[in-house]
Design goal:
By secondary structure, the protein is α/β, with parallel strands linked by helices. The chain folds into two domains: 252 residues, Aldehyde Dehydrogenase, Chain A, domain 1, CATH 3.40.605.10; 186 residues, Aldehyde Dehydrogenase, Chain A, domain 2, CATH 3.40.309.10. It has 14 helices and 20 strands. The protein has a seven-stranded mixed β-sheet with strand order 12-13-14-11-10-15-16, with helices on both faces. Strand 15, helix 13 and strand 16 form a beta-alpha-beta unit. Helix 3 packs across helix 4 and helix 3 runs antiparallel to helix 6. The structure holds NADPH dihydro-nicotinamide-adenine-dinucleotide phosphate. NADPH dihydro-nicotinamide-adenine-dinucleotide phosphate binds next to helix 7 and helix 8.
Length: 457
C-alpha cells in the first residue's frame, strides 16, 4: 500500500503518515458517491442546512486543535490559522442565509393557463481539487455550497493540507452528511488525475496555472462544468496624494501575510515618484519588524515556505532581478534549516523585464517600481497575463474608480488589499481563471437550471 508522509515545513519533522488512495479506490468511492447523491438531493434543504450548522459549531468548538493541525502541515503561523478558521465562520453564515433564495424555484410567467418556471437542480457529483495555502477557505468555498445545493463532493485536498482535508470531511460526517456524499481522497497529483477519470458532473479546481491547464485538458472533451481559480501577479498603485506611511504599512501586510502565499497577495507595487522615498522607507521598516520563527507561538507573523521547491523559484527571481539592475533592500536569502525558510524580501529599481514583476512569486518577496503618472501605472498594472486583483491607494475616490475601471481584474480595491468577502464574487480574468466562488452566484454555480413549461389543461 502506498503512503503519504506529511512533514512540518517549519522544522522538517514528520507529522504523520497516511495510506493513500489509488485508481481502484477512487473509482469505488466515485461510484458510491454517484449512488448516494440522489438521496442527499432529496433530503430537505432544512436538513442539509442543519448539517452545515452543526459543522460550524464543531469548527468553533475544536478551533484550537484544528488551527494546530493546519499550522503543523502547512507552516502557517498559528494566529493566521485561527484567523482563517474565524473567517470561515462568516462564509458559512453567508451560505446558510442565502441558499434558500438561490435554490428556490422561480415562476417567471403565469397567464392563460400557462406557467413557466426555473428549477435549480444540483449538478450531481462534483470534484473539488484544491490548494494548501488556505485549505479551509478554498476547500469550503466549494464543499459547503455544493453540499447545500444537493451535490455529492469528491474532495482531493493538496498533499500539503491533507490532515486539514480529512478534518473537514470528519466534521461534516459527524454533523450528519453521509460518508459517501462527502468523500476526502488522500494522495498527490496522481490521485487528482484518477479523480478526473471518473464519471463526474463538474470540476472545481484551486491551484496553479500549470495544473489548471492540465485539468482543463483532461476534461476538455467531456462537456462538464469546469471552474479554475488560479494564480495572480496582483498589482497596486500608490498615487502621489496618498499617505505614504499608511499605504506602506497596509501594503507590507498585503504582500507578506501568509508569508506571501496567498492567491491575492500584493505581488507588484507601483509608487508615484513624489512619495516614493517615504513609501519605501516605511515599507522596509514594516517588513523588518515582522516577527518570524516559532509557528506555534501566538505572535509569529512570518512562517516557512510550505513547498520546499518554491524556495528555488524565489531565489531565481531575486537573482534575475539583481542581474538586471534591481537593488535589494532587505532579505533575499534562505533562512536557517531545518525547515523551508526564506527571509522577507524587498527589491527596488525593478522593471517588467524581470521575472519578479511578471510571474507569480508566491512567497515573501516584493518588487516596488517608481512611476511618474497615472497613465504609466495603469499601463504597467495591465501588462500581465493574470487578472485576479488590483488596487489603488489615494484619498480621491473618483480618481481610484476612474483608474480601476481601466484595470483588467476580477476584484479591485480602493485603499485596501488582500481582502476576500463571501458577499462578492471571487473570480479571475485572463490566466487567473474561469468561473467563480462566493457571492450568491457562488452558490448557484453548483446548480443547473431546469426549465418547466406547465399548461394547466
Ligand atoms: P498546484 O496546482 O500545485 O496543486 C493544486 C491541486 O492540484 C493539489 O491538490 C494537487 O495535488 C493537485 N494536482 C496536481 N497535479 C494534478 C493533476 N495532474 N491532476 C489533478 N490534480 C492535480 O497548486 P498549489 O497547491 O501549490 O497551490 C498554489 C497555487 O494556487 C498558486 O498558484 C495560487 O495562486 C493558487 N491559488 C489560487 C486561488 C484563487 O482563488 N484564485 C486561491 C488559492 C491558491 P498535490 O498538491 O497533492 O500534488
Amino acid at each position: 500500500m502506498s503512503t503519504l508522509s506529511i512533514f512540518n515545513p517549519a522544522n522538517g519533522q514528520l507529522v504523520n503518515t497516511l495510506p493513500t488512495d489509488d485508481a481502484a479506490s477512487v473509482a469505488d468511492k466515485a461510484t458510491a458517491a454517484r449512488a448516494a447523491q440522489a438521496a442527499w438531493a432529496a433530503t430537505p434543504l432544512a436538513t442539509r442546512k442543519s448539517c452545515i450548522e452543526k459543522f460550524r459549531a464543531s469548527v468553533v468548538q475544536d478551533m484550537d486543535a484544528l488551527a494546530l493541525t493546519m499550522t503543523r502541515e502547512t507552516g502557517k503561523p498559528v494566529q493566521l490559522s485561527r484567523n482563517e478558521l474565524n473567517g470561515l465562520l462568516g462564509r458559512i453564515d453567508f451560505f446558510l442565509t442565502q441558499v434558500d433564495g438561490c435554490l428556490a424555484t422561480e415562476t417567471v410567467m403565469s397567464e392563460g393557463g400557462m406557467t413557466e418556471q426555473i428549477e435549480h437542480i444540483p449538478l450531481g457529483v462534483v470534484a473539488n481539487i484544491s490548494a494548501w495555502n488556505y485549505p479551509w477557505f478554498v476547500g469550503c468555498n466549494v464543499i459547503l455550497p455544493a453540499l447545500l445545493a444537493g451535490n455529492a463532493v469528491l474532495y482531493k485536498p493538496s498533499e500539503y493540507a491533507t490532515n486539514t482535508g480529512l478534518a473537514i470531511a470528519r466534521l461534516l460526517h459527524q454533523a450528519g452528511v453521509p460518508q459517501d456524499v462527502m468523500v476526502c481522497l488522500v494522495g498527490g497529483g496522481e490521485v487528482g488525475q484518477a479523480l478526473l477519470q471518473q464519471r463526474i458532473d463538474g470540476v472545481f479546481f484551486t491551484g496553479s496555472v500549470a495544473t489548471g491547464a492540465r485539468i482543463a485538458q483532461a476534461v476538455g472533451n467531456r462537456f462538464i462544468k469546469l471552474q479554475l481559480e488560479l494564480g495572480g501577479k496582483d498589482p497596486t498603485y500608490v498615487c502621489d496624494d496618498a499617505n505614504p506611511e499608511n499605504a506602506a504599512e497596509s501594503l507590507a501586510d498585503g504582500a507578506m501575510y501568509n508569508t506571501g502565499q496567498s492567491c491575492c497577495s500584493v505581488e507588484r507595487i507601483y509608487v508615484h515618484e513624489k512619495i516614493y522615498d517615504a513609501f519605501v522607507a516605511r515599507f522596509v521598516a514594516t517588513v523588518n519588524g515582522m516577527k518570524s520563527g516559532d509557528t506555534e507561538s501566538a505572535d509569529t507573523y512570518i512562517g516557512p515556505i510550505t513547498r520546499a521547491p518554491q524556495i528555488a523559484v524565489l531565489e531565481a527571481q531575486v537573482a534575475d532581478a539583481l542581474a538586471k539592475g534591481a537593488k535589494l533592500l532587505t532579505g533575499g536569502k534562505r533562512g536557517p534549516t531545518p525547515g523551508n525558510w526564506f527571509s522577507p524580501t524587498v527589491l527596488v529599481n525593478v522593471n517588467h523585464s524581470m521575472e519578479l514583476m511578471r510571474e507569480e512569486s508566491f512567497g515573501p518577496i516584493i518588487g516596488i517600481q517608481k512611476v511618474s503618472s497615472d497613465a504609466q501605472a495603469v499601463q504597467l498594472m495591465n501588462d500581465t497575463r493574470y487578472g485576479l486583483t488590483a488596487g489603488i491607494y489615494t484619498p480621491d475616490q473618483a480618481r481610484a474608480q476612474r483608474l480601476l475601471a481601466q484595470v483588467n481584474a476580477g476584484t479591485v480595491y480602493w485603499n485596501c488589499c488582500d481582502r476576500v468577502s463571501p458577499r462578492l464574487p471571487w473570480s479571475g480574468h485572463g490566466d487567473s481563471g474561469l468561473g467563480l466562488t462566493m457571492s450568491r452566484e457562488g452558490i448557484s454555480t453548483f446548480t443547473r437550471p431546469k426549465a418547466w413549461h406547465l399548461r394547466s389543461a
